[in-house]
Amino acid sequence: MNYQVPTCTANGNLFAALRAAFPPDLDAVAVETDSGLCYSWRDLERASAMLANLLVSLDLPVGARIAAQVDKSVEAMLLYLATLRAGFVFLPLNTAYHSAEMAYFVGDAEPAVVVCTGPNFGWVSKIAFNAGTQYVFTLNDDRSGSLLARAAYSSDQHQVAQKAADDVAAIVYTSGTTGRSKGALLTHGNLLSNAQVLKTYWGWRSANEGADVLIHALPIFHVHGLFVAIHGALLSASKMIWLARFDPKLVLQKMPEATVFMGVPTLYVRLLAEPGLTRDVVRHMRLFISGSAPLLIDTFKEWQSRTGHTILERYGMSETIMLTSNPYQAEQGERRGGTVGFPLPGVQLRVQDDSDRGLPLGEIGGIQVKGPNVFKGYWRMPDKTAEEFTADGFFKTGDVGKIDANGYVTIVGRSKDLIISGGYNVYPAEIEGYINELPGVAESAVIGIPHADFGEVGVAVMVAKPGVVLEPSQITASLKATLANFKVPKQCIVVDALPRNAMGKVQKNVLRERYS
Ligand code: MLC
Ligand code: AMP
Question: Most buried pick, 2, 165, 200, 313, via CB within 10 A?
């Protein structure tokens, strides 16, 4: 198989490449929603032009950030495409974030435009205007809101803004293991090169090859749903069946019309729990892809025996988009459960010891990567950026793994203190910070324990101040009022003391063993 190294087109704008891949028949259906709406390729072209013209009319500075905390809708995707098209920088934000989290992201990124839902306008606009944002628009998942109302007055003709491959297209925040969340700067070139490689590697089929149809059931504020899924479909002119949220029964209902499905492992676990998952339902499917969290070997095997399909597991990060993938083509090798496959074409991946020396095949160490997909750096954090790269330009992923003699990469753990729950990252340090601020709490430790549905969930273990009786349900209620729901530990446990080693460091491994 020949892989094309991304060529430098006249315009490095990612949107120009996505637009160039639209099929000749612009009236064909590009997106079909679960509420029965159909958007043609011409609709995507015109609506993204109108939204881009609206953004341009605001007279924003070069590099202006357009932040969006909106429910999943085709218009939300169009806002992303319009931001690229107009040459600004897209900043997606999880809809679960509460005011403290939003205040941090908006305060740090200083977006010129914030788009939120109508019901959230009051508190989000207050945060945004305090942070210097010039415009706050609303966008609801029923196509109402001020954003579309304003864009309706814009022209549907728009010349794609000229961008260099090295210009920033999006900022994706990744929570920090310590301290502040970092905004990963992804360029047009990072996103396009990765999308082009995946198009070939995963054998995306264009119209003349019997076009693919993707079931899009993931949120669109993370790398997986926003970039991997959407770019893959657009770049191969494939139709998307657009589900506002993941519903296993609805996915199975749509499966006979589809060929590709992408999910985090929890989605596969939930689909397996459906008696309706049969070989007949998946008869037209070409490819099932899993990533964002480890896929349990039991899930991999059960899927194989129930459906006859072998899930293709791949590995990526917000900072790098996709890094490795199990093979699609049989001649490249088998899809091996428990591994994340081979480094993608163009990606250099190595395993190093603690002193940053290369390790022989089969030995476990820190995974480092380099390639056209690797981000430009962290937003306004040059020191942090420098810390995360080696002298020879490799990015330290914080994942721990090994490469076997056949080149398969296996992730065995993380050097970063991170819980991945249902595909969402939860940083214990952040949660502990909130718990320690609650009245009566002396100290706390948040650990991840195995969970049948989410893969891993957080458990908070805490110590009360002398004379205080802590009520776990009140701790949970306080956290729910402050933090995005997926970050709230599923259990709070009060103990007399946290286990510590001779150095005084909390022994999270002891806690994990005790509560798993
Ligand atoms: C929801 N809850 C979660 C949770 N999602 N708790 C822990 N972890 C999660 N992921 C909370 C809910 O708020 C609710 O709390 C309770 O758990 C039960 O929720 P649910 O109804 O079962 O959840 P649901 O809405 O169905 O969402 C589950 C899900 C969702 C798996 C569909 O989490 C999801 O879409 N995950 C995908 C995340 C993703 O796209 N990651 C990609 C990151 S990119 P309460 O208190 O209200 O009862 C990346 C790079 C890469 O990592 O390689 O791709
Ligand atoms: P995020 O910061 O949300 O982009 O999450 C990236 C992290 O998700 C990686 O550093 C890995 O720890 C994890 N991850 C992604 N894909 C996989 C996978 N297939 N198996 C195990 N971990 C994964």
Answer: 313
225, part of any domain: no
pLDDT for 1 equals 40
pLDDT value of position 229? 98
What pLDDT score was predicted for residue 177?
A: 53
Q: Which two tokens stand for residue 171?
A: 């900022």
Structural contact between residues 447 and 458, judged by C-beta atoms closer than 8 angstroms:
yes
Q: Which ligand is nearest to the CA of 225?
A: 1
C-beta of 263 in contact with ligand 2 (< 6 A): no
| Residues facing residue 457 across a β-bridge | 449
The residue whose CA is least distant from atom 49 of ligand 1 is 292
Q: In what order do the strands lie in the sheet with 312-317?
A: 38-40, 29-33, 239-242, 213-216, 260-263, 287-290, 312-317, 321-325, 342-343
Q: Are residues 410 and 429 both part of a single domain?
A: no
Q: DSSP state, 224?
A: I
Which ligand 2 atom is at minimum distance from the Cα of 222?
A: 3
Report yes or no on 493 lying in a domain. Answer: yes
Q: Which is the closest atom of ligand 1 to the Cα of 225?
A: 40
Q: For the chain, which residues score pLDDT lower than 50?
A: 1-8
222 lines ligand 1 (CB under 6 A): yes
**Residue 172 lies inside a defined structural domain of this protein:** no
Report if residue 81 sits inside a domain.
yes
Distance 218 CA to ligand 1 centre (A): 10
Residue nearest to atom 10 of ligand 2 (CA): 317
Rounded to an integer, what distance in angstroms lies between the CA atom of residue 387 and that of residue 353?
A: 16
* Cβ of residue 262 lying under 6 Å from some atom of ligand 1: no
Per-residue model confidence (pLDDT) at position 6: 47
pLDDT digits (tens, 9 = 90+) for 161-171: 999 999 999 99
Residue 362 and residue 501 share a domain: no
State in Å, rounded, how far the first CA of the chain is from the last one. 45
Number of structural domains found in the chain = 3
Quote the pLDDT of residue 180.
77
CA distance 386 to 236: 36
Residue 445 shares a structural domain with residue 502: yes
Which structural domain range is residue 112 located in? Answer: 16-27+40-163
Q: What is the pLDDT of residues 49-106, one digit of tens each?
A: 999 999 999 999 999 999 999 999 999 999 999 999 999 999 999 999 999 999 999 9
162-165 CB contacts, 8 Å cutoff, 24+ apart: 162/11, 162/13, 162/87, 163/11, 163/12, 163/13, 163/14, 163/87, 163/188, 164/12, 164/188, 164/189, 165/6, 165/8, 165/12, 165/189, 165/192
Matching residue, tokens 């502040």? 180
pLDDT value for 5: 41
